[in-house]
Amino acid sequence: MQTKYAAEIQELHQFFQDWFTGSIAQTEENFSRVTSGMSEHFALISPDGTLADYPTVIGWLRGGYRSRPNFRLWTDKIVVRHQTEGLALATYEEWQEIDGKINARLSTTLLQDKAAAPNGVVWLHVHETWLAKEA
Questions:
Q1: Are 6 and 119 in contact (CB under 8 A)?
Q2: What percent of the chain has a predicted confidence (pLDDT) above 70?
Q3: Nearest-CA neighbor of 9 among 130, 121, 116?
Q4: Phi, psi (5° rounding) for residue 116?
Q5: Does the residue 106 lie in any domain?
Q6: CB within 8 A of 80, min separation 6: which ones?
Q7: What is the model's pLDDT at position 132?
Q8: Which CATH number do you get for residue 53?
Q9: Does some domain include residue 31?
Q10: Bridge-based pairing state of the strands 121-130 and 38-45
């Protein structure tokens, strides 16, 4: 059974692929998929250890529209590791193919229930770590 947390992880990554390839229109309505699904306190730790806050991440995403025409992005092995009242901790693999080169990362995310958000969930935190090439 797929949880709302797994659905949110998959759907947001599909949005990222669509946004970066330009397969959806560059409108505020479309981009609201991100802004309505992330907490204003959102933080991302990238695989290189860089910490980015909500305004920085939103800026990167806005600026990335149609920047990767040959881009595929997918998630795999989504597991909700812990769930408590209104919060869920999940891990998943994120795979990216950019111009024929594939990279992968293991991501841990903290999600919070919020009825008005897509899938009823907002993103609070993501921490990414590179996966070994043979993963």
A1: no
A2: 97
A3: 121
A4: -80, -10
A5: yes
A6: 3, 5, 6, 88, 89, 90
A7: 82
A8: 3.10.450.50
A9: yes
A10: parallel
The pLDDT of residue 135 is above 80? no
117 phi-psi bin (left φ>0, alpha ψ -120 to 50, beta other): beta
Tokens 């949005």: give the residue: 15
Q: Is the pTM of this model over 0.85?
A: yes
Query: Tens digit of pLDDT for each residue in 102-133?
Result: 999 999 999 999 999 999 999 999 999 999 86
Percent of the chain residues past pLDDT 90, beyond the cut: 96
How many structural domains are present in the chain? 1
Please name the amino acid found at residue 74. Answer: W
Q: Which domain, by its residues, includes 17?
A: 4-130
Is residue 69 domain-resident? Answer: yes
- What distance, in Å, lies between the first and last C-alpha atoms of the chain? 25
Q: Is 135 inside a domain boundary?
A: no
